[in-house]
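Cross-check.
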Amino acid sequence: MSVNPYKIIEEPILTEKSVNLKELNKYMFKVSDDANKISIKQAVEQLFKVKVSDVRIVNTKPKKVRVGRSEGYRSGWKKAIVTLKEGKIDYTSIKK
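Predicted model, tokenized:
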């Protein structure tokens, strides 16, 4: 049973920290909440045609937000830091 890799990897994370990690051959992605390291590795290899050496997962907690008098929570999410053996990822090369 193969899972659609577009359902596992939701979007790349493009922040100052993630751009600096590209020099170390590491890339950040927002991933689905039920994804694990093995499924993330397979999805990245299938989408970008590269070899993955390591996957680290970070669960970000929900944060309290306030707009005027209203208080609530921004939803938490899961991100993956993927280390490549060789090659580079071009985000514009994938097609849905």
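The longest strand covers residues 51-60. The mean pLDDT is 91. Passed to J.P. for a second look.
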